[in-house]
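Problem statement: downstream parser choked on a complex file, so we are re-checking the raw output for the 2-oxoglutaric acid run. The parser issue turned out to be on our end (a line-ending mismatch), but while we're here, posting the original submission so the record is complete.
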Amino acid sequence: MGDSAKKTVRIGDTTLRDGEQTAGVVFSAKEKVAIARALDAMGVHELECGIPAMGAEERASIRALVNLGLNARLITWNRALIPDIEASLSCGVGAVDLSLSVSDIMIENKINKSRDWVKEQLKRSLGFAKDHGLYVCVGGEDASRADLGFLSELMGIAHGLGADRFRFCDTLGILDPFAMYEKVATLTAAVPGLEIEVHTHNDLGLATANALAGIRGGATYISTTVNGLGERAGNAALEEVVMALKVACGIDVGVDTRKLSAVSRLVGKASNRDVPAWKAVVGERVFSHESGLHTDGVLKNPANYEGFPPEAVGLTRYIVAGKHSGTNGIVESYRQIGIEVSRDEAQSLMATVRATAQRLKRPLGAEELANLYRRLLGSDTCRLSAA
Ligand SMILES: CC(=O)SCCNC(=O)CCNC(=O)[C@H](O)C(C)(C)COP(=O)(O)OP(=O)(O)OC[C@H]1O[C@@H](n2cnc3c(N)ncnc32)[C@H](O)[C@@H]1OP(=O)(O)O
Ligand SMILES: O=C(O)CCC(=O)C(=O)O
C-alpha cells in the first residue's frame, strides 16, 4: 500500500453497539464488561459501547463500562438529537457519535425531513455536544448513497463547529473498494482538516476490502466488530481488518493480534453465534493442512503455505490425514501420535487412509490411525515412541 506504512490507523470497535444490533443478539451487562476488557487489553483504541437513548438498562451497562477506567475511549451512538446527547452525558462518557441520515433516499423516506433540516440539526446537536466538552464523531448514515457535494458541505459545517471526525457509513454494504476509495479520497480532499472513519457493512462480502480502500483514500479510523457481527451480514471484522492491515498493507495498528482468537471465542459465545471453523483469521481450522503438496510444503517451511503463522493470532497448526493426504503428511500424522513410519510404509497406508476418510467424510483421528497401523503393518509395540 505504498507509503501507507507510515500512516496512523485507529480501530473504533462497535461490537457492543452495531454488533449487538445483529438481529437476535443480546449481551448481558457482565458479557459487555468482559468484551470491553478484552478489547481494551489487546489495544483497541475506541469502543462504541451502546445507545443511551434506548433506556435505563442500557445506560446502566454503559456506566459500568465507564467505571472500568479503560484505556480505550468509550463512545456512544446517538441520533443527532439533544435528548439523546443528554442521555449520553448522564452515562459519563466523554465521546459521542451523532448520527444523521445523509442520503436523499433516507432524508426523504425515513426521517421525512430535508437537507436543510439535516444541516440545522447537525449545527444544533454538534454545538450542544461541544458546549459540553464532548469528543464528537459525526455519523453519516447511508453516506455511500449520498450526494458527495452535500456530504462535503456537511463535513465543512462539522469541521467548522469543532467535530473531531466524520464517519462515512456504507450502511447497506453496496460499495465496491474502487468506489469507496474514490469517495473517501474526494471527501478527504474537500475537507482536509477533518478525520474520516469508514464504517462498512458486509452485504456483498466486501466490508474488509472496503475498509482498507477507505484507508487508502485517506480515512484514519476503521469501524469493526469482532467476528464481523452486526446488522444483516455484519460489519468489517476486527480480526480481518487488523491482520489485513498488517499483512497486506504493512500497517500495524498496535493491537495485540495474539489475542484475536480468544476475543473471537468470547464474543462467539456471548452472541450465541458459533465462529465457523474456516472463518478468516480466527477460525479454529484455518491453519489445518491435509492436501499432500500443501502438507509437504508446510512441513519443509510453514511460510510455503501460511501468510502469517498461527501463533500470530493465537491459533494452532494442524496436519491431518485425510482424502487428499500425501506420503510426507501421513508420516507426520503418525509422528504426531508417537508412531514412526517410513515413507514406504506411509505409502502402503495411504490408500486405506484415503478410503477411510472418503467413507467417514472427515480426516482420521489418532485412534483410527493407530488401529490402521496395527492392522496393516504389524504389532502395536513396534516403533511407538514415548508419546
Ligand atoms: C444504521 C444504524 O445502525 S443506526 C442505529 C440504530 N440502532 C437502533 O435502532 C437500536 C436502538 N434503537 C432504539 O432503542 C429506538 O429505536 C430509539 C430509542 C433510538 C428510538 O425509539 P423510538 O422513539 O421508539 O422510535 P422508533 O424506533 O420507532 O423510530 C425512530 C425515530 O427516530 C427517527 N430517526 C431515525 N434516525 C434519526 C436520526 N439520525 N436523527 C434524528 N431522528 C432520527 C425516525 O425518523 C423516527 O422518528 P418518527 O417516529 O418521528 O418517524
Ligand atoms: O451513523 C452512524 O454513526 C452509524 C450508523 C450505522 O451503523 C450504519 O450506518 O451502518
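For whoever reads this later: The pocket of 2-oxoglutaric acid (ligand 2) is lined by residues 18, 97, 99, 139, 141, 167, 169, 171, 199, 201 (CB under 6 Å).
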